[in-house]
Amino acid sequence: MSPGGGAEALARLRRAVAEIEAEAGAPRERPARRLPFSRAFDSALGGGLADDGLHEIAPAQPQDGAAAMAFALALAARFLSLRPASALLIGEGFADQEWGALYGPGLIAHGLPLNRLVFVRAPDAALAFWAIEEALKCGAPAAVVGEIWNLKTYSLAASRRLLLAARKGRVPALLILASAYGQAERLSSAADTRFEIAALPSLRSQAAADLDLPGPFACGARLVKARLSRAGPEAPLRAFNLGHVISLEWRSENLTFNDMTFKDMGLDDEAISLPLAAASGDRPRAAARLR
Amino acid sequence: MDAEAARLGLSQGLSLPDARARFPALVAVEAEPLEEARLLERLCDWCSRFTPLAGLDGRDGLMLDISGVAHLFDGEAALIEDCRARLAAQGFTVAIGAAGNPRAAWALARFSGVKIAPEPLDDKAFARLFYDLPLAALSLDETTQADMARAGLRRIGDIALRPRAPITARFGPVPVARLDALKGLERSSIAPRFPPPDFCAERRFASPIQTAEAIEASLRKLADDLVVLLERQAKGARRVELALYRVDGHVRRIPVGASRPLNEARAIARLFAERLASPHEDAIDAGYGVDLMRLACLAAEPLAPSQAELERAHEAERAHALAGLLDRLSARLGARAVTRRELIDAHLPEQAEAAAPATLGRARTHSESGHCERSPDQVRREAIQEYVGRPTTPGSPRCSAPRDDGLNGAPARPLRLFTRPEPIEALAEVPDGPPLRFRWRRVLHNVAAIEGPERIAAPWWRGAAMPTRDYFRAEDTEGRRFWLYREGLIGRETLHAKWFVHGLFG
Q1: Residue range A5-18: average pLDDT?
Q2: What is the ipTM score, two decimals?
Q3: CATH C-level class of A34-282
């Protein structure tokens, strides 16, 4: 008996399939699976985030880096629930010193399975991009989260490389452009989607004494860019205004985003793509920075 | 002392002024024991070209176990000649002895003109070889030697031919035991500097190679050879080391690790290519040329047994791909840069997790987690419950704090933790109360919501002395959430509270 008999059988079957394909022509490519995450965004994205795309996340202000990371990790937690594989968290080494290292107990509290995470620390941005691309191409991880501070080398070409790698490996890439605060609209890259994330006061609960108790992670998300060419013919696009800020609350216990906008406005589930943020003035907890 | 000085009649132990008085032109160089030790270690590494079992012997000797390797060099005499010639080319003069046991070899090398003891060594030959050697060849300490000299015992033959009992009675058991060791009656072994590899393949070059391409090409051939050896036992390599022996005596060792047993030559060669491309690694410096390359498998494991089901084969392929990816990343970025983490039941928050290199491969990867009794989902829920909730009872340690994760389900631990907590200026209403506003990195934050304190004291049961910390989860008016703490109990441990931010929540 040779070691790895199963793999051999698999290879034999693959050869057989290749022979059939050579005669009958290649099969149609599997359309990207889409991960729904928020009712407000899903319709604009043709059902959710593509699981083979490049998604960029930029903080709105310098201090929103933690919120951007939390948003990316929340999406990664949802991608991890789709496939029984590990996720890679790739970052530049100095960020650990400067902004704090990702913290295991905190990641668990955020809804991520710690034993399925691999932490990669690259000495500089170039190597971080290399690691992200390798990870995407290999196709094994369930998601790749990259946090890049030095964006000098991040260009249209570099993002295109990442995008092609993500398509090839069918792995979603969540790229946090940590130093691109406030530039989300000015960047040009090949990414499928780009979000701008701002911190948002959480849904607090009343305490007996003076100050309220903070609640779970909440953020204001703005979809700045969405490439729709691959969304398929059924892409709905019912007049979604890209500029609107959607308030999301992350419930780590069941891995879902709650739409605080809906909740506050008392709208029902069907009212998905109405212009929402215009009504934010009457919200009790409207953040001052909502635009 | 060099040979010239010895010829003039100087000896060790003579003081420098005395020596100067005799020979005013004397050149004295200060001894550097550390440098010498390092040089000896380097020589020892170099000597591992002859045998994997090479060890240091005292301050000025090397011990090589050449059993079973001498024939590769056309016998012991040729081996000794080869070794002597190569070392002479590097500028070293050595005394070499070979015998059936380490002690005999040691004695021959240092005290005898005959360098190779015949094997097997009968009594007659032993008498001829060793009886005339001085007692120092037994490496006895000086007082014993002096005592014996006073008793008229100067040569090994003097004690070997006498009854053992009186000698033991007078000089202790050591001399007789040493004599037995010399005869090979006692088990003795040498302590090699590096453990012998399980498998190894090597290539010697008649003319040294210098170019990186040539080294790479030889590496591929070596990997082919190694894989043949591994395949014979259906094993795969987990740790592989490439050793490059340079002509000038320098030895460069490059270890790489794999997270699953490897038995493909290309994969092994690729790991080295990644490793050499990494920024932490110096490029190969062939110097005057490399005349021996050895690829050693330091740890081998049986290949995973074949899996019958295709489904699992597919899953394994995924894990396989991931393992390959992690190997490549670790080879390029360093094993410490690619880690998995696990929780540790530690009291202090900064010690609550431990990172281990991902290439070490942990049992709890995703492919196995499905087979345990609890579903992964359930495990996750439990883990979240552990860290979500509001332990607000002051004074009670975190582990026993009651958790109600109902109310708002906010995380109790931050997403990012500063390796060094950053000091902040905080303003509190009462000295031991929660902060109202604080300044961190020159930005003022007004606290809009706060929860705490969660008191974490130093683990006194381990005798740790550290001020008590009171942790607060604070949210400012902009919605940013911080993990703050106040160091020291006011009035008991400190007069002025120092505030720190220890982490950031999402």
Answers
A1: 74
A2: 0.80
A3: alpha beta
